[in-house]
Specification:
Elements (H helix, E strand, L loop, with lengths): L1 H7 L11 H6 L7 H4 L1 H7 L8 H8 L4 E4 L5 E6 L17 E6 L5 E7 L3
Antiparallel strand pairs: 1-2, 2-3, 3-4
């Protein structure tokens, strides 16, 4: 019974092959670490669906942008390639972001890698 209780406390994100520390340390993608993690991100992207909002924040940190949507849904935006707050950002450069959509109950219902906000 104790084994069951300890298993219930573990995070679903602990099984991901993803360097969360490197991702979080590269705020706005300015250092290029997030671009290096893009393949790992693509491998886990669909596994994000169903996670709770606190799991997403634990894995990726505070989002660079947050969009409020209809019916109390929201999207978290994380820059993969350098975002507009980076010195290396160019208006003509392609913006690549991870968007995670969260419903009113705090469940992740969509995750996408896209070229625009």
């Amino acid at each position: 019974m104790l084994l069951l209780a300890s298993g219930a406390c573990s995070s679903r994100t602990s099984n991901f092959n993803f360097d969360s520390g490197a991702w979080k340390s590269d705020v706005h993608g300015c250092e290029g670490k997030r671009q290096e993690l893009q393949k790992e991100l693509e491998a886990i992207r669909l596994d994000l669906i169903g996670l709770k909002e606190y799991d997403i924040r634990s894995l990726f940190g505070k989002p660079e942008a947050e969009e409020l949507l209809d019916r109390s849904n929201k999207s978290y935006v994380y820059y993969i390639k350098p975002g507009p707050k980076c010195a290396s950002f160019s208006v003509s450069s392609e913006t690549l972001v991870l968007k995670v959509r969260i419903d009113a109950l705090g469940n992740t219902i969509e995750s996408a890698i896209t070229n625009s906000l």
